[in-house]
Amino acid sequence: MSPSELTSDVPLSAVLLAFLTVTSGVAVTLAVPKAAGGTTDGADATIFTDGETLTLDQAPDQTIRGKTTLDPGTTLSINLKGETFLKTNRATVTANRTFNASFDMSDVDRGTFEVRVYRNETVLAEAEGRVVCSTDCTTPTTSTDESTQSVDSPAVQAVTEVTQNRTASIKVLFGQAETVSVSIGGPNVNYVVNGTVRDRDGDGSATILFHTDHAGTDAPTLGVVDNGTTRVVEASSETSLDAPLAPASYNVRLYAGPTTDGELEAKGRVVVYTDTSGAPNEASATATTVGTVAGGTDATGSTPDGSGDRLLGSVGLIATGGLLAVLGIGVVLGLFRN
């Protein structure tokens, strides 16, 4: 049989059809799944305000109201954070899907604050607020340092959000205490770190820094910003970790005094989200995020980023193989023609 007869017996269309059949099968195999993320149930909430700003009087029994799409009976947390105060209260969704919570604002200075509505670790609504004097208020005659001491017991920020490998900034108030001890974590997350902070400048407040990228290592995990100065807080005890701190919700407990053996004064939580940027060194040291905890919460703290890189590498190898297959068919056809 001559080469020309061989070529006629192997139609080019048949070869291409076989090649398309193979590559179409590969295409099915390479179907890239959608990225997994935090699922939501469509929950929403609205804070009733006077225009764009929520206005509260400098008096007792100041009520914050709102509405939500959540089912009646759901418990919400209302968090108020001002320059010199932190206040938290709980509210239950009514049959009309509304909620309200009252606060005593008589012991705070006039000025601005932030209000957030939480369900567990999810922020449903947030708004700017202002404390004003609409009645016969008594103008505070004390200094800023004295007014901050009106809070008798220590307080801690209700919810702090941070992305993995970044630093969480947790605002605390000392109340009448000169020293407070903080404990972050617990047995349920297989990690805990304890430390003690002193009110060195006497203003009754400070910001505790929780370096999530240092957790469980020899590097300092805790720090404090007090009167504009940042210092390292030596941990009195800390769990050692073989992997980065896993995304999860970590309890924050605050105690008056130099140890965590006393009575619990206040509690909050730090929510650590999965780092999907792939470049933790470029992140701001105090950057925070708001939202629902995303996936990748295994005990080793691994994230989906690595598997994504491996998938892209596999796609590249298969694409290279497909190119070589095309070249091989071309060579075979060329030999047939020759």
Order of helices and strands: HHEEEEEEEEHEEEEEEEEEEEH
Largest sheet entry? 6 strands, mixed
Total number of distinct structural domains: 3
Strands side by side in the biggest sheet: 10-19-18-12-13-17
CATH classification class of the largest domain:
Mainly Beta
Share of helical residues: 10-25%
Strand content: 35-45%
| Spatial gap, N to C terminus | 14 Å
**CATH homologous superfamily heading of the largest domain:** Macroglobulin (MG2) domain
Number of helices: 4
Give the key terms.
338 residues, alpha+beta, Immunoglobulin-like, six-stranded mixed beta sheet, 19 strands
Note down, in words, how this protein is organized:
This protein has 338 residues and is of the alpha+beta class. The chain has 3 domains: 3-30 and 305-337; 41-141, Immunoglobulin-like (Sandwich), CATH 2.60.40; 150-303, Macroglobulin (MG2) domain (Immunoglobulin-like, Sandwich), CATH 2.60.40.1930. Helix content is 19%, strand content 37%. It is built from 4 helices and 19 strands. The chain has helices at 3-9, 12-29, 144-148, 305-337, and strands at 45-47, 53-57, 62-68, 75-82, 86-92, 98-103, 111-119, 122-132, 155-156, 159-163, 167-173, 179-186, 191-198, 205-211, 222-226, 229-233, 235-238, 249-256, 264-273. The strands form 4 sheets. The protein has a 6-stranded mixed beta sheet with strand order 10-19-18-12-13-17, with no helix packed on it. A 5-stranded mixed beta sheet has the order 2-8-7-4-5, with no helix packed on it. Strand 18 and strand 19 (264-273) form a beta hairpin. Helix 2 packs antiparallel against helix 4. Keywords: Membrane, Transmembrane, Transmembrane helix. This is PGF-CTERM sorting domain-containing protein. The chain crosses the membrane at residues 311-336.
